[in-house]
Amino acid sequence: MNIRVQSTLATLFAALTFATTASAGDPAVGLWRTQPDRKNLTSHIEVRQCGANLCGKVVKAFDPSGNEVKTKNVGKELFWGVEPKGNGVYENGTVVVPLLNVKAKAGMVLKGSSLHVSGCKGRVCDGQVWSRI
After folding, report:
1. CA 123/CA 130 separation, integer angstroms
2. Predicted TM-score of the model (pTM)
3. Across the strands, what pairs with 116?
4. CA dihedral sign, ordered 5, 11, 15, 21
5. Exposed/middle/buried for residue 43 (C-beta within 10 Å: 0-12, 13-18, 19+)
6. Strand, helix or coil at 7?
7. What is the enclosing helix (H) or strand (E) of 8?
8. Comparing C-alpha atoms, which of 120, 113, 124, 121 is closest to residue 32?
9. What element of type H or E holds 132?
10. Residue 126 in contact with residue 118, Cβ under 8 Å?
11. If you write DSSP's letter for every residue of 67-98 in order, what string do you get?
């Protein structure tokens, strides 16, 4: 292999490594604890990169005593397509509200170790503040 090809491959590898590292380093990526829902259950939500956007799924659920419980939502995608806009702002995603079986427009704002998550269906909006685990 000549030096020019080696240099081109090394540059391409470095660019791909940087792009992967940059996207994986989004500050909202990680494990988050929800506030209690209407059934008084809390959940652990895994927020991860899904292409250029963020998505999240329910990985565990807990009763008010802190005991892990199995629900039909564990393992399901809770939101997807949430676009990072910069400065801790995320918009234009979709969230499923399992208790109401409703899809809504999702947004998030990261403030330190708190993630302010909201969903809006038309003019009706609701949200929670999640804590980083």
Report:
1. 23
2. 0.79
3. 109, 129
4. positive
5. buried
6. helix
7. helix 3-24
8. 113
9. strand 124-132
10. yes
11. -EE--TTTTSEEEEEEEEEETTEEEEEEEEET
pLDDT at 107: 98
Q: What is the pLDDT of residues 8-59, one digit of tens each?
A: 333 333 333 333 333 457 999 999 999 999 899 999 999 999 999 999 999 9
Cβ count near 52 (within 10 Å): 10
Residue matched to tokens 């393992």: 75
Helix/strand/coil (H/E/C) assignment for every residue in 17-68: HHHHHHHHCCCCCEEEECCCCCCCCEEEEEEEEECCEEEEEEEEEECCCCCE
Q: Tell me the HSE value of 5 on the side-chain side, using a 13 A CA sphere.
A: 2
